[in-house]
Design goal:
95 residues; mainly alpha; 434 Repressor (Amino-terminal Domain); 57% helix; elongated
């Protein structure tokens, strides 16, 4: 990311979920100015911010730090690994 741009992918996640900023405002109950600053890089995020947005978007907080397609690929890989382990085809078992 270049200076002045957010180092997370909130805008991409909003589009990926086919949402509008208004939808997030309704779900988070935040003021419009707060969300606008977060989306446009005018404000830094906190752990609480990540958690609230992740809940509103239906994703894990760390996924906001990567593009949606990468997060989906990681989820698919994890699911496949757990499935193989459950079938006894891997030398480990998920916790």
């Amino acid at each position: 990311m270049t200076e002045g741009q957010p180092n997370w992918f909130l805008r991409e996640w909003i589009a990926d979920k086919k949402m509008r900023q208004k939808d997030l405002l309704d779900r988070t109950q935040w003021q419009k100015s707060k969300l606008s600053k977060l989306v446009n890089g005018g404000s830094n995020y906190t752990r609480e911010t990540l958690n609230a947005l992740a809940v509103a978007l239906g994703i894990e907080p760390y996924e906001l730090l990567m593009r949606p397609e990468r997060a989906r690929a990681i989820r698919e890989f994890e699911y496949s690994a757990y499935k193989l382990a459950a079938e006894g085809r891997m030398p480990f078992r998920p916790e």
